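Supplementary notes for students who missed Thursday's class. We covered one full example, reproduced here. Read the sequence, then the structure, then the short commentary at the end.
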Amino acid sequence: MHQGGPTGRRQVRDGDGSRRLGAAELGAELGERATLVQFSSAFCQPCRATRRTLSEVAAMVDGVAHIEIDAESRLELVRALDIARTPTVLVLDAAGRVVRRASGPPRRADVIAALGDAV
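Structure (token representation):
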């Protein structure tokens, strides 16, 4: 995913690869090849655009699922994953390992590129 400019609006980092998430934690099944996990909040305007972008990419790429999680209702998971703002997107591989994470609204091309790290 794209690194933000000097404003720091979009922050990207590699996942540590040691943290694995499953359907029980996420509340939905993982994708066959990769999963886009979006942490959102009710009044987050960029979260709506992020939802559209991730849904479009998941529909375009076979075996990719998009799971949206309400950060306010899942505070324990938010703390465990060190989610500091919404939207935050985690890219998981088929085994549920976090391979990329980004905060701020991603561009479609950046999401597709990040999936390359997961599949």
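Commentary. Residues 1-9 have pLDDT under 50 and may be disordered. The beta strands are 11-14, 34-40, 64-70, 88-93, 98-103. If anything here is unclear, bring it to office hours.
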